[in-house]
């Protein structure tokens, strides 16, 4: 996909999108380690910090994703809107999850929210892959970008 949100010819959004997913997956793995009775008491703290870092990265990823979405036409634009909507739900879910963890949140509930967040991200990633499989959905006027 051609987009003005790129480095050379490589779109920025797909490069960055792996970061929040990886951080949230790590947070889930920390929760599982803690829930399975690991004697290390640092798992919940590490889960909290990786979750917060994932939220920060999600905000960074959203900018180039919005630029890409605005360039799509037709059915791809609809797919992008669904993808963005799911991602917004995931971000809201992780904000709630983070808030629960800063208080006396139930560890079972926070683990469930993390599993739900990863499940939604898998659906969102699948939709993103559907958009990436389409060759050049929205050509960019290269002359206009060279003049800018």
UniProtKB/TrEMBL annotation:
InterPro entries noted in UniProt: DUF2231_TM
Transmembrane segments: 12-33, 45-62, 74-96, 108-127
Domain DUF2231: 10-132
UniProt superkingdom: Bacteria
Assigned keywords, A-Z: Membrane, Transmembrane, Transmembrane helix
Pfam families xrefs: DUF2231
Protein name (record): DUF2231 domain-containing protein
Annotated organism of origin: Piscinibacter terrae
């Amino acid at each position: 996909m051609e987009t003005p949100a790129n480095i050379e010819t490589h779109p920025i959004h797909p490069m960055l999108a792996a970061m929040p997913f990886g951080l949230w997956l790590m947070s889930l793995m920390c929760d599982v380690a803690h829930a399975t009775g690991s004697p290390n008491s640092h798992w919940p703290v590490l889960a909290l910090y990786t979750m917060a870092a994932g939220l920060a990265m999600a905000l960074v990823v959203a900018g180039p994703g919005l630029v890409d979405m605005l360039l799509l036409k037709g059915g791809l634009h609809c797919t992008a809107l669904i993808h963005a909507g799911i991602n917004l739900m995931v971000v809201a879910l992780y904000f709630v999850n983070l808030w629960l963890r800063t208080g006396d949140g139930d560890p079972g509930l926070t683990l469930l929210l993390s599993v739900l967040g990863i499940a939604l991200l898998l659906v969102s990633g699948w939709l993103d892959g559907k958009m990436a499989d389409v060759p050049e959905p929205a050509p960019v006027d290269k002359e206009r970008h060279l003049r800018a």
